[in-house]
From TrEMBL:
UniProt domain NIPSNAP: residue ranges: 7-99
Pfam name, any one: NIPSNAP
Protein known as: NIPSNAP domain-containing protein
Length: 113
């Protein structure tokens, strides 16, 4: 499994637009065999940072999903929300390998209680 972590700098005055954009991508990732773990939006205080996490079975599965960008009408519509509203100032992707709670069945080797 591979997890994509997307770090966003957003326009806090356009949070409603960013939420619409986020809902579209949650739908699309899940529709195309990924698992979206959610968007994490500013909650209290002034903030221009948001995160998204989603996983695919493999890098190859993620790359298959990426082939739809700029071609699939739903992907184009989702990006249009971002582009027309200006809700996203900048973003960067990082790929990680998750260690999930259901994969931990006891304390680590050599760990003392």
């Amino acid at each position: 499994m591979i997890t994509c972590v997307v770090h966003y700098k957003i326009d806090p005055d356009k949070l409603a637009d960013f939420e619409r954009f986020s809902r579209a991508w949650i739908y699309l990732v899940n529709k195309h065999k990924g698992q979206h773990h959610g968007y994490f939006l500013p909650s209290e205080g002034a903030s221009d940072v948001a995160l998204a996490l989603f996983s695919f079975e493999s890098l190859a599965a993620y790359e298959q999903y990426r082939t739809r960008f700029g071609k699939d009408k739903e992907f184009i519509a989702a990006d249009k929300i971002r582009d027309e509203s200006g809700c996203v100032i900048r973003y960067e992707r990082t790929f990680m390998r998750p260690l999930l709670p259901n994969e931990v069945d006891g304390p680590p080797d050599g760990w003392q209680k």
